[in-house]
Design a protein that fits this description.
CATH superfamily: Electron Transport, Fmn-binding Protein, Chain A
Strand order of the largest sheet: 5-4-10-13-14-7-6
Radius of gyration: 19 Å
Largest sheet: 7 strands, antiparallel
Structural class: alpha+beta
Mean pLDDT: 94
Number of helices: 5
Helix content: 10-25%
Low-confidence stretches: none
CATH architecture: Roll
Distance between the termini: 46 Å
Shape: globular
CATH topology: Pnp Oxidase, Chain A
Number of strands: 16
Strand content: 25-35%
Length: about 220
Amino acid sequence: MSAIGNGKMEFDPAAMQAADVYKIVAGCIVPRPIGFISTVSLGGINNAAPFSFFNAISHIPPMVCVSISKNYKENRRKDTLVNILDTREFVANIVDEAIVEAQDFCSEKYPPEFDEIKGAGLTAAPSHAVAAPRIEESPVNFECRLFDAIALPQSPYTLVIGRVVRMHVRRDLMLPNGRIDAAKLCAVGRMTGNTYTRTNSIFSLSHDTFDTLPLNETG
């Protein structure tokens, strides 16, 4: 660590403890969307867990990614990753204020035979294109098939990329022009530690990404 002329502190992550690197990365790259990932095991046990290293990476075709670390306490793959690799399917559920407490419950460590969806008081709804269940109470569900799973070099994380094959959006969120009503979505973003942020305080600038989209391409 060193101080440089503009008053910022400089850090070399290679010379730091991993926990200290995490505090800076997770504390500065905010807010992060939460991927509430639901899966099913080969034995038919439902699983759900939230991940904040999650985002959309393409819309042609629609793809999302989630980075999943190992279970540090047991030094093994997390059940979510095991299920995704076994079945090659998962559902990414969006977290809103109504289910934020439930997703926090699911972030705890449970044995593989424990059904987090049921334990959190949520409803496992059947998906239409994959075997993994949707979380009914979530306002938006993206059914995904595994596109690739990449063990990141020198890292405990595996980057999972899924192709979205079905999208379920609560009817009242859809505006007449096809956009999503962000204020009604009430999505929750992850900050760091045990802190979160609401996303219903919105402002606009001149650039509108919708104006740059081609009209004749499909997903």
